[in-house]
Design brief:
CATH class of the largest domain: Alpha Beta
CATH topology of the largest domain: Rossmann fold
Distance between the termini: 22 Å
Helix content: 25-40%
Structural class: alpha/beta
Number of strands: 11
Strand order of the largest sheet: 3-2-1-4-5-6-11
Oligomer: single chain
Largest sheet: 7 strands, parallel
């Protein structure tokens, strides 16, 4: 066993702030409230239901993660956020149509009082949405200062000891890194000059990190994964992570693709299409926003399958992704995959998947875990990119000189080994002395 890492106790309240109080955020808030009231269970949440093996298998030490390491409890969480619409969380959840009204009515008293703060929003970056509940200021730098005032006010009014921010808002248009993103100085100068390379999500990330608040990006936007944010996070000793919640179709890919590679089964093609009708579907109906999502989805297979290492199996893989806005489906997204594989002697086979998933139901426990684990990271003195949280993202952030790890099972091993390391427990490598006895 190694030495324990000093971890500050999770005393007091933890504020969870979310840009975007739409389907995902309201499902998360209402869900946590329902779980606290004993109306359901936190299915899908590693922090609440996950276990962790310690030591050798013969020791049979498999505690719950939340019993192994001190985490913020559900009763410690206080919610707040921004939105371009004025609906409170109860009304927004009704409009989203994810959770049944019968359940929402049982938690109405707790969530109806949570109303959004005016948002930082620019329709040039999310072209399919319009909203009037928006901050006005001369520059993007001034908007960041207004967000920082919101953060400080939220902390004082709720007597919070710690805070985190998780981006739950819409996908912005596709953006490439710009020279103004290279340093904190050039980034702040660009904010003051209203440079178009500074998107609203970046303004939130800047305000969060500058306030000493950990930030997670739940969308595929170019947001916190730029050098200026790395520099700021280092200065402020703030953990950051992202990007794009791993739900639905991509979750299936990160489960299946490692299996194909492990068995050395080849792939000729993987065609994926989606239909969904919520606000996310409407936003992604814009080609520029879809481009951002497409880049996030397409990269998964290449990193997992390593076509440069296995050219005979994956070099010529044809990978296509489509997303179609279909209002009648609402939040109940359907992800359909056709997978053309080949095996022994090159004989072809096919796999068909029709995943009738609920995007916000899959995303809500990720918001919970990210909020709680980011708080743990900060209490443990960790700062900058938290690669051990790659488990939760389609496009995991990592150090610039590394490539991201997309294999779900390696990601989970990395996450749990980080927890073991923090508590001074032996890391699990699956290499035991019994092989040499």
């Amino acid at each position: 066993m190694s030495e324990n890492i000093p971890i500050e106790k999770p005393a007091g309240k933890l504020g969870v702030m979310m840009p975007g109080l739409g389907a995902v955020a309201t499902t998360f808030i209402a869900g946590v409230t329902a779980i606290k009231r004993g109306l359901s269970q936190p299915y899908g949440s590693l922090t609440q239901m996950g276990t962790i093996r310690l030591g050798k298998r013969t020791e049979k030490r498999v505690p719950m993660i939340k019993d192994f390491i001190q985490l913020a409890g559900l009763d410690d969480l206080v919610f707040g956020g921004w939105d371009i619409f004025t609906d409170n969380v109860y009304k927004a959840a009704l409009n989203a149509g994810v959770l049944r009204k019968e359940l929402l009515d049982q938690v109405r008293d707790d969530i109806e009082g949570i109303t959004p703060w005016k948002a930082v929003f620019d329709q040039n970056y999310v072209k399919k949405l319009e909203g009037e509940h928006v901050k006005k200021a001369p520059t993007k730098y001034d908007l960041a200062q207004m967000l920082m005032e919101d953060i400080q006010r939220f902390k004082e009014e709720n007597d919070l000891s710690r805070m985190v921010m998780v981006w739950c808002a819409s996908t912005e248009v596709f953006m490439k890194p710009n020279p103004v993103h290279e340093t904190l100085e050039s980034f702040e100068k660009a904010m003051k000059e209203n440079h178009p390379a500074i998107a609203p999500s970046m303004i939130y990330a800047y305000a969060s990190i500058a306030s000493g608040v950990p930030f997670a990006n739940g969308a595929p936007n170019l947001t916190v994964d730029i050098p200026a944010m790395f520099e700021l996070a280092g200065q402020k000793n703030v953990p950051i992570t992202g990007k794009d919640f791993k739900t639905g179709q991509t979750l299936m890919k990160t489960i299946l693709a490692p299996g194909f590679k492990a068995r050395l089964l080849g792939l000729n093609g993987w065609f994926s299409t989606n239909i969904l009708g919520n606000r996310d579907g409407e936003v992604l109906d814009d080609p520029e926003s879809f481009k951002t999502k497409e880049e996030s989805k397409l990269g998964v297979l290449e990193y997992i399958l390593q076509p440069d290492v296995y050219p005979e199996l994956y070099k010529d893989l044809y990978h296509k992704v489509r997303i179609n806005y279909y209002p009648p489906r609402g939040d109940n997204k359907e992800g359909w995959d056709n997978i053309d594989i080949f095996g022994w002697l090159g004989y072809p086979m096919q796999i068909k998947i029709d995943f009738l998933c609920r995007d916000s139901i899959l995303a809500a426990p990720l918001v919970l875990d990210l909020a709680i684990f980011l708080d743990l990271a900060q209490r443990s003195g960790m700062k900058g990119i938290q690669e051990w949280l790659s488990f939760y993202f389609k496009s995991p952030m990592c150090a610039p000189e590394l490539y991201p790890e997309h294999d779900l099972f390696i990601q989970l091993m990395k996450l749990k080994n980080t927890l073991r390391h923090l508590k001074g427990e032996e890391l699990i490598t699956h290499l035991g002395l019994e092989y040499y006895d």
